[in-house]
Specification:
The protein has one domain: P-loop containing nucleotide triphosphate hydrolases (Rossmann fold), CATH 3.40.50. The radius of gyration is 17 Å and the shape is globular. With 233 residues, the chain is an alpha/beta fold. Helices cover 35% and strands 27% of the residues. The longest helix is centred in the last third of the chain and has 18 residues. Helix 3 runs parallel beside helix 6.
């Protein structure tokens, strides 16, 4: 599905990722963990194309995309939900969701909200005419994920989607992540600061320190014990 190989990336002359490599299979949920400032968000921005890869390769569906624009990568099937949600606060929930069809070819845009969106996030059906900025943090997070799913992506990049929201919404997001992986064979890269959250929904774990992978393994207790020393302050 996607392979990141020896990628170096960062901001201007300050590199954050150094020779970074990881792989994600179709339908696999991979969590990327690490302390603040080690390169987790930089990784997602580099995969989607908001930051350039200074060196290395990003191969998606057997096509090298590291030199493609973010728009091209989105149209190829990579969706991105940034930290902070980044919804359109002045647009209605309905218009936010319909904007999610932008990556699709024009002939595939229906102008209709898929019913499965409301099956995953029922609260959005009740709020279609409300402005995005009027929603709570947890509701905005649901909207951001739903908007990304409107584009029928093959892989979705989620930057700390469970941060700062109530436990019931955290559980809902976990369930949705598991369902889209299982039923739609969609891959997920999940940036998380919580090892507990990662263990409950991921198949495989990576831990980053100083911009490079320092350990990885199946999402189980043995891997979690190894990771702890890289996550504690």
């Amino acid at each position: 599905m996607i392979a990141v190989s020896n990628v170096t990336s960062g901001y201007d002359q300050s590199m954050v990722l150094h020779n970074f490599s990881m792989e994600v299979r179709p339908g696999q949920i991979v969590a990327v963990l690490g302390r603040n400032g080690v390169g987790k968000s930089t990784l997602l921005k580099t995969i989607i194309g908001l930051l350039p890869a200074k060196q290395g390769d990003i191969c998606f569906n057997q096509t090298f995309v590291q030199n493609e624009k973010a728009e091209t990568r989105a149209k190829a099937g990579i969706a991105y939900v940034p930290q902070g949600r980044d919804i359109f606060s002045s647009l209605t929930v309905r218009d936010n969701l319909l904007f999610g069809e932008e990556p699709l070819p024009r002939k595939d845009r229906t102008g209709q909200i898929k019913e499965e969106i409301f099956q995953w996030f029922p609260v959005l059906k009740e709020m279609l005419d409300r402005k995005g900025g009027d929603l709570s943090g947890g509701q905005q997070q649901q909207l951001a994920i739903a908007r990304a799913l409107m584009g029928n992506p093959k892989i979705i990049l989620l930057d700390e989607p469970m941060e700062g929201i109530q436990p019931s919404i955290v559980e809902l997001i976990r369930q949705v992540i598991a369902e889209i992986s299982r039923k739609k064979d969609m891959s997920v890269i999940l940036v998380e600061h919580s090892l507990e959250n990662a263990l409950t929904c991921a198949d495989y774990l990576y831990v980053i320190d100083r911009g490079t992978v320092v350990d990885h393994g199946k999402a189980d207790e043995e891997t979690a014990r190894r990771f702890e020393r890289h996550l504690t302050v």
